[in-house]
Amino acid sequence: SDVCSSDLDRAQIAVLVFSGPKDWSAYRRCTGSTVDKVDLASDCNIVWVSHFTTDAAGIIMALGNQPWPKATTLTSAALATAGAELRTGRASAQSVVIVITDGKPMNPRKTFQAALQLRRKARLLWVPVTRYAPLRQIKAWASRPVADNVLVLPDFKELVTKATLNKVIADACPVVE
Length: 177
Hints:
alpha+beta
């Protein structure tokens, strides 16, 4: 949220790393199919690297220390979790959610529903990485216009290039001062 502030030092950023459950019992807890209490981190592999903060350098350091979760992809729960975080952001700020994903979600229908809910609160920009990401579906989940809200990358090496970072910022921000 607020990544396009004219005062970038005040931009609030939150980072969520997500994967998915490792077994069906955890999946049922993560999707609300059981009455068992869910732990987002251990059951669903959804971990907050940082809630909203203006400390971009701290987020970068924390994200660099975050292991790759290597499990399924529970995108719908990650989108819902990001949507809940938006309530703690500044009401006057433009909210932008950037989803970087490399795989197919466990439940495309629930992901579509979660994306529609989130698009009511924020702009939803997708960065699918690798050929395994479902591009046709991602285009349906993204905010409109799709050309400004979907940035396809062939691999993760491309993600950290200056050109890609500039493109993500340009796509996310209508005006960068």
